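Hello Y.,

Per our agreement to keep a running log of every chain we model this quarter, I'm adding this entry. I've kept the format consistent with earlier entries: sequence first, then predicted structure.
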Amino acid sequence: MLDPANVPDVDLHEMLSRFILTRQYVNQQTKQLKPAAFVPHPYEELSVTRDREATDAEIWTVGQGIAGLQQKTLHGRGDALAASYVQQKLKTIADPVEGNTNHVNITNWPSAADKAAQKLIAQEIAAVAKFVPAPEDFSSANSVPK
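Predicted structure for the entry above:
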């Protein structure tokens, strides 16, 4: 994970992970992410985690922590390059938070009142994102990673 005292701006070539806590966000036949996984509604920011200087286990641990706080199951994550967001005129803002120095907010979305505009952008991101299923030891909301 990044040093909290030295958090650089997000680079276009960085992978950003959106944790998937709702099974309905994944097409169960194709394993493709649905646009809803990337819609920030009702907010105007989308929360993701950058993979920079983090091991795969650290990324999953962050996702498991988020799932646990929300009492949900971590189903996986949607990985997309920061450039995928920037190409949609969105901004990637490093926003370290307690427990996740790699946290990033995706901003500059259309207003929450304009769900259709948000969905159009989310469709473009979902089309290039890769779904990575959670490892079995991270897939239960109440489990402790092994």
